[in-house]
Amino acid sequence: MALEMDKLGYIPGDDAFRRENLKGTRFEATYAGALSFMRRKYTRDLTGVDIAITGVPFDQAVSHRSGTRMGPEGIRRASAENAWGHVWPWNFDPFDTLAVVDYGDCFFDWGRKEAFPQALESHAAEILNKGVELITLGGDHYISYPLLKAHAKKHGPLALVHFDAHRDVEIDSGGRIDHGTMFGHAVKEGLIDSERSVQIGIRTTFIGETAMGFRIVYADEVHNSTAEQVAKIITDKVGKQKAYLTFDIDCLDPSAAPGTGTPIPGGLSYHQAASIIRRLTNINFAGMDMVEVSPPYDHAEITSLAASALVMEYLCLRAHQKGAQGHVMAK
Questions:
Q1: Does 165 score more than 90 pLDDT?
Q2: Element (H or E) spanning 210, and its range?
């Protein structure tokens, strides 16, 4: 028996495979079907694509709890809950403006950890070299390092907009695959212009760390400021530089995001983080990653849900910059 079409003339279900138009949103049951990110089409055909979502199920660089290899799957699953239409408070559907696909995961040999960085850099370059923007779902935070290499080869040195509890500039001798050291190396290698970069939500310190030119907005400063004030700090620091947004979910307080490897009390609420991102409309972003979501330590998927929603905030921001019409919260 043939499936009954919905009132718009669509056969509901499995839009991740059966979708023909890369734009728009069609509601399907949140508890069923193929779980791409926000029900976008699974494809490696980048014809006409504005942004590709990819997953990196890697957690071999962690210093504490593992489990972030499950992050891409968890974020995709949680995103289905909100894959139905307009996003508050933007009041538009970013997929009406942006053609977005789920490119699937970066594949690598888990037994060849030393080969992983090049595998991810090459995977990212495949997408970027076709003129498509990349949003990456991690995975531990080390993945930002090869991603920055691929982005810097295309765009030159990038301003880093970095939400985190940790600065990830710990001192080491180089060559290690570690999620706490890579941004120091990225600065030294010219991937990041630290004089145009900001780290937000920081609430840890390690022996030997220096500012390295970053503007550090510690968690207490965020709590004592409005979203507009923090966004102005970021915008003023970045200026006209091409920027990369990296969001470690442990920037959020463990009460809002328990499912992560190195939770640190005193962090941001979802509302604080989202309100800041919404106000970064004057920054020229080249890409984004969302990292350190560890579903084995999550409760009721609240960490994965926060991560998927923050990626949607970024997509709304990019759609707004491209001309989507809607209401953004007053500045």
A1: yes
A2: none
